[in-house]
Amino acid sequence: MDSEIHHEEKVYRVKVDQSGRILIPAGSQLRQTCRSGQELVAVESGNGSFVIRKYEDVVRELQAYFGDKIPVGRNLVAELTAERREEAARE
Fold first, then answer.
1. Rounded mean pLDDT, 47-73
2. Distance CA 10, CA 29 (A)
3. Residue 60 structural domain
4. What is the count of structural domains for the chain?
5. Count of alpha carbons within 13 angstroms of residue 4, beta-carbon side
6. Is the pLDDT confidence value at 85 over 90?
7. Which sign does the torsion angle of CA 67, 76, 38, 6 carry?
8. What is the pLDDT of residue 4?
9. Beta carbons within 10 angstroms of residue 28's beta carbon
């Protein structure tokens, strides 16, 4: 494999069970900071590798990235909701 393993990375060997689940090893930092039922995000790269991150960390990162790109006072959720309602009314 051409990818480089950095010194701060830990590598774990895991197995997929019959239901397609992967058990996160008890010694991993992710496992130590997650609670049962917590949502995670798994990102699959083009080469088939996965990166698993906590959902709230991904949301926080996206909010920081997009936060300065949306004009102050603009509510994109309200705009999208209004558009969807208009579309539904036309149908």
1. 87
2. 9
3. 1-91
4. 1
5. 3
6. yes
7. negative
8. 56
9. 14
